[in-house]
Design a protein that fits this description.
The structure is a single chain. This protein has 283 residues and is α+β, with helices and mostly antiparallel strands. Among the domains are: 97 residues, Immunoglobulin-like (Sandwich); 100 residues, Cupredoxins -  blue copper proteins (Immunoglobulin-like, Sandwich). The protein is 15% helix and 31% strand. It has four helices and 18 strands. A hairpin with a 4-residue loop joins β11 and β12.
């Protein structure tokens, strides 16, 4: 995305006039993907790597930026009016929201400075936005079920493993039968520091029929818990509360074999005999 919202500059294009001189500060915040910043139909006058005036490139149509890499690009807007697409030529990010429009019109109302701050919403506005959402793709918490399909296990499964890796729980949603043991294993390797950036994790239930908190887990350490009460358990990682996941616990199915099955069969037979006798008396 660009500046905090997918398709932000498609819904609200950046306005310019033919002949305007434009300077863009471009930073790839990462944390992992490479970006190739490009405006279709535009040739840079100058491109400054890391914004340093001595690191100047003349001409060109794109700049390559690794995570945390930055460029300042300058160009003169062409005389042709129309829409110029702003993209990353690493197009895997473009179709996920990293696309915008530079709209060129002679009578455009131009903002001299367009800041990088993302949009802000009140709690009511955010609640209304969530009502309209039809699909959620989130790296650190469950998305909609077409994205994060719940992993469903039957009563024959005695243990389910949830792996913690990349500051996320996998699977993010599990559906189990009461009495099932869940085992969390921390697969993150960097556990040499403390705080936000460390790979130390735990499991803390914040909502559900019962609450519990595991110890902090280093690499390859694990924690187990047997769920004995049906219901839905929302849990997080305490050092990284944006890490969220769900455990859904179903009641055990009724076992209809053995003495119980025999008893029910006898009851059903007795009811059938009673119905037959009643009908014969009415005749």
């Amino acid at each position: 995305m660009f500046n905090g919202e997918i398709f932000r500059y498609v819904k609200e294009p950046i306005m310019a006039r033919p002949g305007d001189y434009v300077r863009i500060y471009f930073l790839n915040v990462g944390p992992n993907l490479i970006s190739t910043f490009h405006i279709v139909g535009i040739i840079w006058d100058f491109a400054y790597w890391q914004g340093h005036p001595d690191n100047v490139f003349v001409g060109g149509q794109s700049v390559l930026a690794g995570p945390t890499d930055s460029w300042v690009v300058e160009f003169r807007v062409p005389p042709e009016e129309g829409d110029y697409a702003i993209v990353s030529h690493a197009f895997g990010t473009t179709d996920r929201g990293a696309v915008g429009i530079l709209r060129v019109k002679k009578d455009a109302r131009v903002e001299p400075i367009i800041k990088a701050e993302g949009p802000t919403y009140t709690s009511d506005e955010m609640a209304n936005i969530k009502k309209e959402v039809i699909r959620v793709v989130a790296p650190f918490e469950p998305g909609t079920e077409d994205v994060d399909v719940p992993a469903v296990f039957n009563e024959k499964t005695k243990e389910v493993v949830v792996r913690i890796k990349g500051n996320s729980f996998y699977p993010k949603v599990i559906d189990i039968v009461e009495g099932t043991k869940v085992k969390w294993i921390n697969e993150d390797v960097f556990t040499y520091a403390q705080g936000e950036f460390a790979g130390i994790h735990n499991v803390q239930v914040v909502k559900g029929p019962e609450q519990f908190t595991s110890p902090l887990l280093l690499h390859a350490q694990s924690y187990e818990h047997v769920f004995t009460k049906p219901g839905e358990y929302d849990y997080i990682c305490t050092p990284h509360p944006y890490m969220k996941a769900i455990v859904r616990v179903r009641p055990k199915p009724i076992n209809l074999s053995g003495p119980i099955a025999m008893f029910l069969s006898i009851v059903a037979l007795a009811v059938a005999v009673f119905v037959i006798m009643t009908n014969n008396k009415r005749r």
